[in-house]
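Researcher: Re-running this chain for the archive, since the previous output was lost when a drive failed. Same request as before.
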Amino acid sequence: MMSTEIKKYDYSKLRGRIKEVLGTEGAYAKALGRSHNFITSVFNNKSFLTQADIDKSTDILNIEPRDIGIYFFTLKVHKNET
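Model: Regenerated structure tokens:
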């Protein structure tokens, strides 16, 4: 049976990189051409970055292609899981 649960992503590494490179999430949103509200929504797992957003983010944040999964696709682990 397939699960209908939506995956939740942990963006803590991405948020750290944003702070390190640009200083604020607002600056990241502006550089990406998105609103700060949209970025907040992404970090709250209510919206999702497009492939184009991720590609542009790798340029903005100097993320190596091999590291995309670490920054954009790390799943949140539920606290009651081991």
